[in-house]
Amino acid sequence: MKIAIIGTGYVGLTTAVVLAYLNHNVAAVDKDQSKLGLLHQGKSPIHEPGIQNLLEDVQHTIRFTPSVADVVPDAELILIAVGTPPKKNGEADTRHVEQAAREVAQVCLPGKHYTLVIKSTVPIGTNQRVTEVVETVFSARGIQGNISVASNPEFLQEGLALQGAFYPDRIVVGANSEEAIDTLRRLYKPILEQTFDPPSTLPRPSAYHLPPMMTTDPNSAEMIKYAANTFLALKISFINEIAGLCEKVGADVTEVARGIGLDARIGNRFLQAGLGWGGSCYPKDTSALLGVAALSGYEMPITEAARTINLRQRECIVEKLRSALKTLKGKTIGILGLAFKPNTDDVREAPSLDIIGELLAEGVIVRAHDPIAIENARRALNGKDTSANALLHFTEDIDELAYDADALVLVTEWELYHKLQLPKLAKQMKTPILIDGRNIYSPQDARNAGFHYIGIGRA
Ligand code: UGA
């Protein structure tokens, strides 16, 4: 199938390479020349495990261009995967989605049928809005256009994006047109039937079942995306709320999560207590959902509370450090992990940024380590490691991070931190205090290694 994808961000690029791998004819459009420059050299502008290899594999079935007019007229299906950044009031800004739809409608051939798919995360009602935008352009052009607009929300997780694209739990399609639903069923046929040969680095999971394609109305499809992310965010905030109480009453939240997770109705995933959620999705999507609710004059106290608890997790790290070190000013603290989660260099809404900001404000000397996210963190922290603020240092050397430090704080559970030589690190430090913000260590092992160990929700 001939496909045009508008936007080569995290969702657009992942979708483009996966569809090209499935033998579709893919053309991806982006206006960002620096991204296009990399893509033309066969290099991925995003860090995502496996994407570079796959991009090399599909070099001959994918092309990248800055021009919508180059690729849309010929396409059967056009997929919009541009950003929907938060507006000042928290609502998602759909300006880029509408602009993309406008540009598409300007170059569609009269009479030819197209399916226009919205993959970006958009407020409820956007499908309808995009349909109106397209019709307005057609009537201004004086042509009889023939576009069906469908909503096809994306459920990929950063760091596991290719896994999620090849082996999804479900595919959701919201459309009023049977023709659009049929086109999407043909698009995803190899995934729905799992008839493709898996890439060598992404074997099909042994217990994987064929995914259903759920079809529904556009508003419900748009709501499913927000409700799914909000529910996962709630689940994490719930276990973090329980973690706080565990500390007060002498229970261990990791045991509690294990015990409740064994109930099939609850399930054990997304019950890892710790520093809470960051990234570009849960913070933005919970806020956008509250924005939609506010416009409808509707209160959502559970969603509000999930956000409040999430911020409290970040603040509690500084409290734990204060209670262990008494005074913070002038102390040296090492931060293990800057990315909002492992296997990504994404630091958007990362807990590390808030924690570092607070520590710097307290006059702490902060050393920060991450295997791949240092440059992004440096930019996000606005050059706080310059001579204007000599308190913040980035290092790629964990020994340097620990040397003579007063405490270490584990913020991101990178695989390499699981394998640290804890006894060696403890010996290098001035005071061997370890705050384990993701509960990855056994408290007993950390204590045996010489650390004063403080987890989250582990009394
Ligand atoms: C999330 C959803 O999981 C995807 O389904 C969705 O497509 C995506 O948002 C999106 O809307 O684009 P993502 O933000 O990449 O994906 O990452 P998650 O793996 O869901 O983790 C989000 C945050 O929750 C991370 O900061 C992680 O550290 C935290 N988390 C996750 C916990 O604190 N505890 C857990 O048990 C699980």
Annotated CATH architecture of the largest domain? 3-Layer(aba) Sandwich
C-alpha geometry: elongated
The CATH superfamily of the largest domain appears as NAD(P)-binding Rossmann-like Domain
Q: Any idea of the CATH topology of the largest domain?
A: Rossmann fold
Major sheet characteristics: 8 strands, mixed
What's the CATH class label of the largest domain? Answer: Alpha Beta
Taken together, the total number of domains comes to 2
Which structural class do the helices and strands define? alpha/beta
Summarize model confidence as the mean pLDDT: 96
Strand content: 5-15%
What gyration radius follows from the Cα positions, in whole Å? Answer: 24 Å
Give the N-to-C terminal Cα separation: 57 Å
Oligomeric state of the chains present here: single chain
Q: How many individual β-strands?
A: 14
Strand order of the largest sheet: 3-2-1-4-5-6-7-8
**Low-pLDDT residue intervals, each spanning 5 or more residues:** none
Ions, cofactors and other bound molecules = uridine-5'-diphosphate-glucuronic acid
Count the DSSP helices.
19
